[in-house]
Write a structure and sequence with these properties.
By secondary structure, the protein is α/β, with parallel strands linked by helices. The chain has helices at residues 8-14, 47-50, 59-69, 82-94, 106-125, 144-149, 174-180, 204-217, 268-271, 287-300, 303-327, 352-361, 384-402, and strands at residues 26-30, 33-36, 41-44, 99-103, 131-135, 166-169, 185-190, 193-194, 200-201, 220-224, 248-251, 262-266, 330-336, 339-344, 364-365, 367-368, 373-376. The protein folds into two domains: 8-58 and 303-402, Aspartate Aminotransferase, domain 1 (Alpha-Beta Complex), CATH 3.90.1150.10; 72-300, Type I PLP-dependent aspartate aminotransferase-like (Major domain) (Aspartate Aminotransferase, domain 2, 3-Layer(aba) Sandwich). 38% of the residues lie in helices and 18% in strands. The radius of gyration is 21 Å and the shape is globular.
Length: 406
């Protein structure tokens, strides 16, 4: 019989090495804390990469999981199901959209969005209108199409020729966008806050310029809200804090609070170009994922919860300011809601991983966004006691890296 004892070393023995996980193995989570196989606890500022927006083992989500799990897990796309219809109706009531397509991840949601945009352009304007405009340092997923559209060549190099008709422009550069978006452009895809690219918010004027250019040239505007969506910025979706409405919106990550689900939201007029058989999925919109996501959206769309996100954002930024006052480590702290990036200054340039490792050693789980940015994406309902304890531990981690106070 195969030995079922596993450790961190087991990863190196059995897994394809596309990840380099931490030296400890998490085995249990509750709220904003996680425990490893040795029983040590960690304060979770990472949120599973902006996923566990309601924390670990949320009791209302566990109830939905158990109740729906006892009824129907999966039925296949030859049939519909009640939970997915309820979820679609709820999302459409809360957003600009009136049609939804469900997938398993943000990458698949973006794949669907990009394919829909090209299909719309082909059927309305002909084969010459196929160009997709994206932005440097953007991230849209790991399928070959989405990784090519993303603005980080390190993720697409080494796999052969990339799909054609993709243009990358500087983020927040209005003049460059106006020059590049033209009659061949079928879509512009943009993150309201670039997450993996360094937690860089889009300038509202930049988003307005993209909307105007798309309207002028018959192109579709796609908002990738995989990371910013479902309450992360203090609004259900980040576009709702702007005066810009996209034609297509993608959402995932927090949508299932850790249960895999993604969605593409759009209008009925555009959705009509995806006829039966044009696109599809086996697992997308299965009843178990949809039931959980429906409860997630119900809970997170509560205005009081969203106000709490904005309040916690101010608290974290204040605590980061105090860390900087003591250690002189940051060049800038930026972001919206509970998607916050703290960029290291010249003294610590390239050392984000050092801070990440020191935080783990002190009992804090956190993220980076490139070699120079510490990223915070905790639970949207993180208790004040956990937040305070996490920063007390983080202060000791900063001492380990930066030394004594100035």
């Amino acid at each position: 019989m195969t030995d079922q004892t596993v450790t961190r070393q087991t990863f190196d023995e059995v897994m394809v090495p596309v990840f380099s996980p931490a030296p400890f193995v998490p085995v249990r989570g509750e709220g904003s804390r996680v425990w490893d196989a040795n029983g040590r606890d960690y304060v979770d500022f990472a949120g599973g990469i902006a996923v566990t927006a309601l924390g670990h083992a949320h009791p209302e989500l566990l109830k939905v999981l158990h109740d729906q799990g006892a009824k129907l897990w999966h039925i296949g796309n030859g049939y519909t199901n009640e939970p997915v219809l309820r979820l679609a109706r709820r999302l459409e009531a809360l957003t600009f959209a009136d049609r939804a397509f469900f997938a398993n991840s943000g990458a698949e949601a973006n794949e669907a969005a990009l394919k829909l945009a090209r299909r719309v352009a082909f059927e309305r304007h002909g084969a010459d209108k196929f160009e997709i405009v994206s932005f440097t340092q953007s991230f849209h997923g790991r399928t070959f199409f989405t990784v090519s559209v993303g603005g980080q060549p390190k993720y697409s190099e080494g796999f052969g020729p990339v799909p054609q008709g993709i243009v990358h422009l500087p983020f927040n550069d209005i003049d460059a966008a106006r020059r590049a978006i033209g009659k061949q452009t079928c879509a512009v895809i943009v993150e309201p806050v670039q997450g993996e690219g360094g937690v860089i918010p889009a300038d509202p004027a930049f988003l307005r310029a993209l909307r105007e250019a798309c309207d002028a040239h018959g192109a579709l505007l796609i908002f990738d809200e995989v990371q910013t969506g479902v309450g992360r910025t203090g609004h259900l979706y980040a576009y709702q804090d702007t005066d810009v409405t996209p034609d297509i919106l993608t959402t995932a990550k927090a949508l299932g609070n850790g249960f895999p689900i993604g969605a593409m939201l759009t209008t009925a007029d555009l959705a009509a170009h995806f006829k039966v058989g044009v696109h599809g999925t086996t697992y997308g919109g299965n009843p178990l994922a949809a039931a959980i996501a429906d409860k997630v959206v119900e809970l997170i769309s509560d205005p009081a919860l969203l106000a709490g996100v904005r309040s916690r954002s101010d608290t974290i930024k204040d605590k980061l300011a105090k860390l900087h006052e003591r250690f002189d480590v940051f060049a800038e702290v930026r972001g919206k809601g509970l998607l916050i990036g703290a960029e290291l200054n010249e003294r610590y340039r390239g050392r984000a991983k050092d801070f990440l490792a020191a935080a783990a050693n002190r009992g804090v789980m956190m993220l980076i966004a490139g070699p120079d940015v510490l990223r915070f994406a905790p639970s949207l309902v993180m208790p004040a006691a956990d937040l305070n304890d996490g920063f007390a531990r983080l202060e000791r981690a900063f001492e380990d890296v930066a030394g004594a106070a100035r």
